[in-house]
Design goal:
The protein has 284 residues and is of the alpha/beta class. It contains 9 helices and 11 strands. The strands form 2 sheets. A 7-stranded mixed β-sheet has the order 3-2-1-4-7-10-11, with helices on both faces.
Length: 284
């Protein structure tokens, strides 16, 4: 299960970074069924497998922070037996999963304030927090019009559009990424998820930066939704993921190169606010 989850994370089959963190945490349960001679052997195995999960996607701050916290809780618990170490692991996994899910939900609840009845918004990529916020707004009776970019080359926006299309009071229009500037003038707000914010930089799905820059030019406010754990002050260095050229073009590239970065960097001064489980605040 751990190897399968690491491969899935590596291939980005699970798109939401919060979902990735939860799946990785749950994958560590596999260790609870294995036999270990000593506590030291168990903790080494826990740390080794946790490191493998973190290496599968070095760009995901939430994956790194949650995995490190699970290992730290077990080590800090100073267990005397393997069974005690396993109990600490299980408790840590349950607490982490609950924290991630609660933080997402609370961030979405705060974000409803920015989605009034009749709002027209544009979103990019696939963010479970953005989806929940729009669904919560619709449940309150708000009618929301949403422009969704395809988020090429993996077309994650199509998944967003299909999900929102099933929500009452939400009207969805799918557009190609390059059409964002054309439709932004019709929008009241841009709403985005986040992989993480490190210092004064938002890292998110590639294509976020040009949308935020265009929105600033057109005076359309940009809001980012996500758990406060994704706001990183220190101890994490973002590493971009350069994916296979075959996602961009299936035919062989003859005489030219293909670059396929998964994320781009957006200065936080382009954002009006960041919405987390701690509330709505201005970027520092």
């Amino acid at each position: 299960m751990i190897d399968e989850t690491a491969n899935e994370i590596r291939e980005m089959q699970t798109h939401s970074s919060s979902t990735v963190a939860i799946k990785a945490a749950e994958a560590l349960r596999e260790l609870l069924d294995r036999e270990y001679a000593t506590v030291e052997e168990y903790v080494r195995s826990l740390d080794r497998n946790s490191s493998a999960l973190r290496r599968a996607q070095p760009s995901h701050a939430s994956l790194h922070s949650t995995q490190r916290e699970i290992v730290a809780r077990v080590e800090d618990g100073d267990p005397d037996t393997v069974e005690e170490a396993k109990d600490l692991t299980e408790s840590a996994i349950e607490a982490i999963v609950d924290d991630v899910e609660t933080a997402k939900h609370e961030a979405a609840q705060h974000a409803v304030e920015l989605l009034p009845d009749g709002a027209t918004v544009l979103t990019h990529d696939y963010s479970s927090t953005v989806l929940e916020a729009i669904e919560l707004a619709a449940q309150k009776g708000h009618h929301i019009e949403v422009y969704v970019t395809e988020a090429r080359p993996r077309f994650l926006g199509r998944k967003t559009a299909r999900t929102l299309a099933e929500v009452d009071r939400v009207d969805v229009t799918l557009i190609v990424d390059s059409a964002a500037g054309h439709f932004l003038d019709e929008c009241d707000r841009v709403v985005l998820g986040m992989d993480c914010i490190v210092d004064d930089t938002l890292y998110n799905r590639v294509g976020t930066f040009p949308i935020a820059a265009s929105a600033a030019e057109l005076a359309v406010p940009v809001s980012v939704f996500g758990a406060s754990a994704k706001l990183i002050d220190e101890g994490f260095a973002f590493e971009n993921d350069f994916r296979s050229p075959s996602e961009v073009m299936r035919e062989p590239a003859e005489g030219f190169a293909i670059e396929n970065p998964a994320y781009d960097a957006t200065p936080t001064h382009l954002l009006e606010n960041v919405v987390t489980d701690d509330g709505i605040h201005k970027p520092e």
